[in-house]
């Protein structure tokens, strides 16, 4: 067959595939490392077949063969990962789905779950890896990584919510600063009566936001629970796995699944990878990072870096005690006592507390407005 005849044959194959799958253009080439699954290689190959039928050109790295996929034979899991890296580096494949990968610091994965209440899809930012050694910085970056992944999956204007964990309030302040400075963020609104973009467990089940921002350890647990709650945890049945590694300047498309992931989820992960390739995830990442940096990303992060400890902590005496009938939420638990002392310094008696939405600073009704001004000026609330 001549090179021209081969090219014509490839074009006709692409047209035939497009008519069958509804997706036209070159099929994304995605590798799957099949060894290491707790459910055996057969589980991985079943996923490869499903994804191939959906329009993904699957390179199966393992010992099994199937007419629907390209098998790259390896002896064990270690050799499989080496071969996967080799194929990525050479450009023979566009991306890969695997069960573990050593991402550098600054790169972490954005998961994609199906939430149980309404069957809504939700991106969880983030699920593995470490965006930053600093918790607040990591969550701010996770939000941007989530936006990149959602846009690269076809959502033009994703909504962003922040899970009510340590760091949520400072993350919220930083993201709202970026939005005010021109970086477009659409904030989700909690389904609970108190509203706001800091979300509760109910919102996780309902899939309230398109993107749920959290720390990677919490995100990892949520992804596992949402994927495997129907099986008692032994078999991840729903969702798309732990997602692609995203980071500034990072251009290797590697998506993570679990050793407990079942064939339907693994197939979804392969299709997820294919969508990211078709939508040029790295071009989207470059544009999003540029836009966030123009809006003051570095400054927003720097303002929330831990301050050096004072040589000797200033002693602040509490003003005369009075009934605390008003409260101000939205303060980080680690900042709670400092926020109370900030009010004491200006003569406002205050106490710390914990409500159902998180930490509170409590004061009298008469001092509420002045207390809110002081805490806002000090950067404890927005």
TrEMBL record:
<dbReference type="GO" id="GO:0006633">
    <property type="term" value="P:fatty acid biosynthetic process"/>
</dbReference>
<feature type="active site">
    <location>
        <position position="356"/>
    </location>
</feature>
<dbReference type="InterPro" id="IPR012116">
    <property type="entry name" value="Gly_reductase_pC_asu"/>
</dbReference>
<protein>
    <submittedName>
        <fullName>Fatty acid/phospholipid biosynthesis enzyme</fullName>
    </submittedName>
</protein>
<dbReference type="Pfam" id="PF02504">
    <property type="entry name" value="FA_synthesis"/>
</dbReference>
<dbReference type="InterPro" id="IPR003664">
    <property type="entry name" value="FA_synthesis"/>
</dbReference>
<dbReference type="GO" id="GO:0016747">
    <property type="term" value="F:acyltransferase activity, transferring groups other than amino-acyl groups"/>
</dbReference>
């Amino acid at each position: 067959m001549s090179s021209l005849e081969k090219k014509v044959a490839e074009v006709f194959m692409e047209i035939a595939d497009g008519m069958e799958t509804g997706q036209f253009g070159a099929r994304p080439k995605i590798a799957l490392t099949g060894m290491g699954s707790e459910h055996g290689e057969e589980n991985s190959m079943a996923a490869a077949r499903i994804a191939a039928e959906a329009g993904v050109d699957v390179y199966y790295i393992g010992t099994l063969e199937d007419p629907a996929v390209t098998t790259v034979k390896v002896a064990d899991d270690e050799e499989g990962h080496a071969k996967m890296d080799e194929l990525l580096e050479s450009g023979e494949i566009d991306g890969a789905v695997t069960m573990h990968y050593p991402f550098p610091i600054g790169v972490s994965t954005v998961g994609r779950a199906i939430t149980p209440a309404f069957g809504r899809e939700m991106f969880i930012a983030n699920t593995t890896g470490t965006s930053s050694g600093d918790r607040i910085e990591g969550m701010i970056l996770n939000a941007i990584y989530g936006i990149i992944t959602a846009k690269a999956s076809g959502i033009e204007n994703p909504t962003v919510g922040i899970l009510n964990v340590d760091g949520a309030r400072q993350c919220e302040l930083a993201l709202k600063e970026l939005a005010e400075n021109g970086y477009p963020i659409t904030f989700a609104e909690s389904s609970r009566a108190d509203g706001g973009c800091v979300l509760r467990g109910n919102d996780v089940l309902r899939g309230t936001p398109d993107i749920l921002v959290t720390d990677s350890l919490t995100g990892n647990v949520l992804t596992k629970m949402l994927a495997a709650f129907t099986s008692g945890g032994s078999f991840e049945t729903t969702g798309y796995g732990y997602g692609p590694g995203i980071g500034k300047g990072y251009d290797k498309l590697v998506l993570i699944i679990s050793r407990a992931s079942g064939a339907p989820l693994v197939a979804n992960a392969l299709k997820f990878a294919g969508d990211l390739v078709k939508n040029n995830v790295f071009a989207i990442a470059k544009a999003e990072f540029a836009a966030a940096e123009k809006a003051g990303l570095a400054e927003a992060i720097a303002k929330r870096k831990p301050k050096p400890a004072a040589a000797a902590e200033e002693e602040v005496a509490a003003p005369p005690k009075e009934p605390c009938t008003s409260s101000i939420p939205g303060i980080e638990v680690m900042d709670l006592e400092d926020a109370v002392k900030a009010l004491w310094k200006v003569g406002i008696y205050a106490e710390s507390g914990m409500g159902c939405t998180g930490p509170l600073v409590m004061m009298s009704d008469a001092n509420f407005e002045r207390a809110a001004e002081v805490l806002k000026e000090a950067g404890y609330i927005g």
